[in-house]
Amino acid sequence: MMAPVPFKNENQNLKFCTGTSYTGKLDSEGQMTGLGTYSYPNGTEYRGHLKNGQFHGSGMIIDIKSKFKMCGYFINGKCDKYDIFFGDGLEYNQENWSYCTESDRRFWIEINQGIPAVGETFLTNDKPSRIIPPGHYDTGEGFFDPKSDSIVDALSGKRIRHVCLHERKRILENYRMNQVDFEMKHNLMKEVKEVDISTDSWVSSDGK
């Protein structure tokens, strides 16, 4: 049986085999405790209170690259209440969320800078909208590749993470795709509808 690790009042700098790291205090059992920072390999960090090796108390999860922040209160590793702040200043509130809904479909950039002149349009909240590689979908986090079911970094092309079947379905049905692919898909659907219409007409005229 291993002897308990004595309580360290000063901050520790630990690195784990998963690629994560921790800067903060440890309790007598060697568990993360008090105020600390837990960092993930992708650049995401948790900054806040911990207890028994888990997020516990007020804390913030932040993506250093995009400046996305989720500020909340954690209980034994689970987030109980939270508010989300995007890197461009947009704030998400659980109780009153009206952004890009049927009542107001403006992007955040249009809310702040006004709607562009006639003839111009915003496809995304970015100006200009980034170019999507062929066969990919823009998820905001990166580009989704249906062949590998992975989201890749928009700049480096490196794989960020794998998506589940539910997320894959949502992306394919709702997210912006490469313009050439979109036009091909649109034309194909148009041809299918025309075939359906002509088939219905033929059947009805035959009386069967």
Number of helical regions: 3
Largest sheet: 8 strands, antiparallel
CATH architect. name of the largest domain = Single Sheet
- How far is it from the N-terminal to the C-terminal residue, by CA? 83 Å
Radius of gyration: 24 Å
Strand order of the largest sheet: 1-2-3-4-5-6-7-8
Give the C-level CATH assignment of the largest domain: Mainly Beta
Which keywords apply here?
single chain; 208 residues; alpha+beta; Histone H3 K4-specific methyltransferase SET7/9 N-terminal domain; 2 domains; eight-stranded antiparallel sheet; 35% strand; globular; disordered C terminus
Condensed summary:
This protein has helices at residues 108-113, 165-174, 179-206, and strands at residues 8-15, 21-26, 32-39, 44-51, 54-63, 68-75, 78-85, 91-92, 137-138, 143-145, 150-152, 159-162, 176-177. With 208 residues, the protein is an alpha+beta fold. It folds into 2 domains: 1-90, Histone H3 K4-specific methyltransferase SET7/9 N-terminal domain, CATH 2.20.110; 124-198, no CATH class.
Describe the structure.
- The protein is α+β, with helices and mostly antiparallel strands and 208 residues long.
- It folds into two domains: 90 residues, Histone H3 K4-specific methyltransferase SET7/9 N-terminal domain (Single Sheet), CATH 2.20.110; 75 residues, no CATH class.
- Helices cover 21% and strands 35% of the residues.
- It is built from three helices and 13 strands.
- An eight-stranded antiparallel beta sheet has the order 1-2-3-4-5-6-7-8, with no helix packed on it.
- A hairpin with a 2-residue loop joins β4 and β5.
- The radius of gyration is 24 Å and the shape is globular.
